[in-house]
């Protein structure tokens, strides 16, 4: 069975009110925690407005995270390419790849927040075409080509990188939300996909259609796309019981939705939650709900359902949020690592089959007990000592020890 990878996507989405310096440090601590727990990937984004999403440079943040981590792969989720000269992006990613020992995944997007594009004077109608154009140039630069390119928004004259990626084939990924453009670009360039729109019910149902866009574009471009390079973002908070998860996450979930999705972004059709319980019910327990607020078993079921709906993908990316306080949030990610990941990846099957085999094949244990009793009875002193043992209580026996109560009764 192909094993599922697990990671985290830190947009970030932090409510306003905490000291920014400590917030950054807390996010870096989070990256280190995930690395220690064995998660495979850590992603962070680029935003310049809203007050809730405050990482302006994922490359700078991941450089710091790289010094606190050892094995986890670090993804830009994402660099908004229309905001930057592609040559500068290529240089920063290559430098980051070297600084992190070859752990970088280059994720790109057109720019998610209209307020960011407005600030920079960019027409939203050109953002996706500019992302496409930039990817083509960056891939050529990574390959060591000398590039001359004239565009209505950037110019390259006989440009060539002086440092190339540490990874021989630095992995690419393209963000995909609702429109087909992200999947189409992934197919065109044979890149991976980071599906962010899957956190909505409509997004979940659209996943099979979305993947078909990638396959069609890949066939047209003479390339291939692989589902193992498809990352799907899910939102969750887990605890030992559903009641605990509800109590821990409800208020923060309501604040995130009401203040950010409704009050700040004013997402079309989004209505405020009436209470913390209403927030949990609509997010995790309504018909077709896309989120999980519950136990590790609830998340296991949700992941398996999503795999079936989508047709299969390679990595589950958990959406990082502040629905719960920092301690309970850390505990949630710990529970996922300890219970969800091994269950999804079949890591416990060997334990269970070994236990069941022992239960069903008792004859070997009985034979071992007989062997021990024979050695005892063949030794006069040991046989006398056994009488004392049978007369009193015994300590916890080894698994292969003879049944002394049976001997006593005999």
How many strands, what sense, and barrel or not for the largest sheet? 8 strands, parallel, barrel
Q: Can you give the mean pLDDT?
A: 92
| CATH class group of the largest domain | Alpha Beta
Strand order of the largest sheet: 1-2-3-5-8-9-10-13
State the helicity in percent bands.
40-55%
How many angstroms does the end-to-end distance come to? 51 Å
The poorly predicted ranges are none
What string gives the helices and strands in order? EHEHEEHEHHEEEHEHEEHHEHEHHHHH
Computed Rg: 28 Å
The tally of structural domains comes to 2
CATH topology value of the largest domain? TIM Barrel
Shape: globular
CATH architecture of the largest domain: Alpha-Beta Barrel
Structural class: alpha/beta
Number of DSSP helices? 15
| Beta-strand share of residues | 5-15%
Question: What is the total tally of β strands?
Answer: 13
Full CATH superfamily name of the largest domain: Luciferase-like domain
């Amino acid at each position: 069975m192909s094993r599922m990878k697990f990671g985290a996507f830190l947009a970030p989405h932090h409510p306003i009110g905490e000291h920014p310096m400590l917030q950054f440090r807390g996010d870096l601590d989070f990256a280190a925690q995930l690395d220690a727990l064995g998660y495979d990937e850590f992603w962070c984004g680029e935003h310049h407005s809203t007050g809730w999403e405050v990482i302006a440079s994922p490359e700078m943040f991941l450089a710091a995270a790289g010094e606190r981590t050892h094995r986890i792969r670090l993804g830009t989720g994402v660099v908004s390419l229309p905001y930057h000269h592609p040559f500068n992006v290529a240089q920063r990613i290559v430098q980051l790849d070297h600084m992190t020992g070859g752990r970088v995944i280059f994720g790109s997007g057109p720019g998610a927040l209209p307020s960011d594009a407005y600030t920079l004077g960019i027409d939203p109608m050109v953002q996706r075409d500019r992302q496409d154009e930039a990817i083509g140039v960056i891939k050529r630069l990574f390959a060591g080509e000398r590039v001359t390119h004239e565009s209505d928004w950037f110019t390259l004259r006989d440009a060539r990188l002086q440092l190339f990626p540490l990874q021989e084939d630095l992995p690419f990924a393209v963000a995909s939300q609702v429109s087909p453009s992200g999947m189409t670009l992934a197919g065109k360039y044979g890149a991976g996909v980071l599906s962010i729109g899957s956190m909505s019910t409509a997004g979940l149902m659209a996943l099979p259609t979305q993947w078909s866009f990638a396959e069609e574009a890949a066939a047209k471009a003479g390339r291939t796309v692989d589902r193992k390079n498809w990352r799907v973002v899910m939102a969750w908070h887990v605890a030992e019981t559903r009641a605990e998860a509800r109590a821990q996450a409800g208020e923060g979930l309501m604040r995130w939705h009401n203040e950010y999705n409704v009050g700040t972004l004013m997402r079309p059709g989004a209505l405020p939650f009436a209470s913390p319980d209403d927030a949990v019910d609509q997010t995790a327990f309504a018909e077709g709900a896309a989120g999980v607020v519950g136990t590790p078993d609830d998340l296991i079921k949700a992941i398996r359902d999503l795999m079936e709906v989508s047709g299969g993908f390679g990595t589950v990316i958990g959406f990082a949020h502040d629905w719960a306080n920092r301690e309970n949030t850390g505990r949630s990610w710990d529970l996922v690592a300890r219970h969800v990941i091994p269950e999804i990846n079949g890591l416990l099957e060997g334990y269970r089959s070994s236990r069941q085999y022992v239960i069903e094949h008792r004859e070997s244990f009985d034979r071992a007990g007989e062997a021990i009793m024979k050695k005892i009875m063949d030794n006069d002193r040991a046989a006398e000592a056994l009488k004392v043992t049978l007369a009193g209580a015994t300590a916890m026996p080894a698994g292969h020890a003879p049944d002394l109560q049976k001997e006593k009764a005999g």
